[in-house]
Amino acid sequence: MKSAVIVFPGSNCDRDLAVAIRDVTGKAPVMLWHRETELPDGIGLIAVPGGFSYGDYLRSGAMAARSPVMRAVIDAARRGVPVLGVCNGFQILTEAGLLPGALMRNAGLNFICRNVALTVENSQSTFTARYEQGEKVYFPVAHHDGNYTADADVLDRLEGEGRVAFRYAEAVNGSSRGIAGILNDSGNVLGLMPHPERVIEAPHGSSDGHRLFEGLFEAVA
Amino acid sequence: MKTRVYVTLKGGVLDPQGKAIHHALDGLGFSGVNDVRAGKMIEIDHDDHVSDADLESMCKKLLANTVIENFRIERGA
Q1: N or C: at which end does chain B have fewer Cβ atoms within 10 angstroms?
Q2: Interchain pair A149, B61: CB under 8 A
Q3: What is the pLDDT of residues B38-58, one digit of tens each?
Q4: Which of A59, A106, A107 sits opposite B65 (nearest CB)?
Q5: What is the pLDDT of residue B77?
Q6: What is the CB-side half-sphere exposure of residue A62 using CA atoms within 13 A?
Q7: Which domains does chain B possess?
Q8: Which residues, including other chains, have CB under 8 Å from residue A53's CB and lie 6 or more apart?
Q9: How far is CA A156 from CA A71, A79, A107, A164, B3, in A?
């Protein structure tokens, strides 16, 4: 299976994502620079990494969402290719219109960098099949703009359609209804603020994130 | 020609930065401040032929995130 990790100026989790993908698939992903206009033929998975793309200028993810490579990513996502956006990747996917809502400054204004407890709200998705429904997992967060916001109708629809994939099991950033990660309407795009790629093996303190990549690989292989 | 675009958070959207600024003003001893909302101003230097519709499109496509923000265009003379 061919996979790609998108790299923007200011991305800093691209290599962590590449290691997680290589570990699970046995094959290193293609690292695609933001100026590229085409994805490799037969691409099976696209990962949009965390970091501070374009220095968070204008709004987090705003510039990256309009970069050349994202036009190809948007097309692929609309064709059903799984797209995983973590942290700044989540912000980029909302700015690109692939996911609803927006990620605003954390309610307490602080940059938050610690492990947080999450509840798996939907274990039926492409990304969460290896988790139990309602299971508690621990992923680290490292963000300043993780406060998920959408209007009440959008929030109700996300909840009603099982598109809230992960919810914070503790107070973190003021996110509406504790939302940590959401799916698009066809279920092939996941954006989440916490970092599963930073907890894929025991020396990381937890390997809770490994199963996200395992489940994803099983679904697309 | 210079046009100014003002981008502000929509009414119902919580503004943590505005709240922090408000708190700091209180701390400096200014009384009577009821609320503070923070936004941004973007100045665009452009040719005369850039239309109002172009400017509006710039706001919708990039300058403002209309999920959470409003924009106001002040076209320069």
Answers
A1: C
A2: no
A3: 999 999 999 999 999 999 999
A4: A59
A5: 63
A6: 20
A7: 2-74 (3.30.1280.10)
A8: A8, A9, A10, A11, A34, A61, A63, A64, A88, A92
A9: 29, 26, 21, 10, 39
Q: Inter-chain contact A101–B67, Cβ cutoff 8 Å?
A: yes
Smallest CA–CA separation between B48 and chain A, in Å? 25
Instruction: Look at A101 and B62 and tell me if their CB atoms are within 8 Å.
Output: no
Query: Is the torsion defined by CA of A73, A102, A90, A34 positive or negative?
Result: positive
DSSP code of B61?
I
Would you please indicate which residues of A are annotated as catalytic (active-site) residues?
Answer: 87, 195, 197
Sequence spans of domains, chain A: 2-220
CATH number belonging to domain A2-220: 3.40.50.880
| pTM (two decimals) | 0.94
Query: Using an 8 Å Cβ cutoff, are A18 and A5 in contact?
Result: yes
Is A143:A189 a contact under the CB 8 Å cutoff?
no
Q: Is A143 exposed, middle or buried (0-12, 13-18, 19+ CB in 10 A)?
A: buried
Q: A73-84 as b/e, with b when 16 or more CB fall inside 10 Å?
A: bbebbeeebbbb
CA dihedral A175, A181, A185, A189 (to 10 degrees): 140
Distance from CA of A56 to the nearest CA of B (A): 13
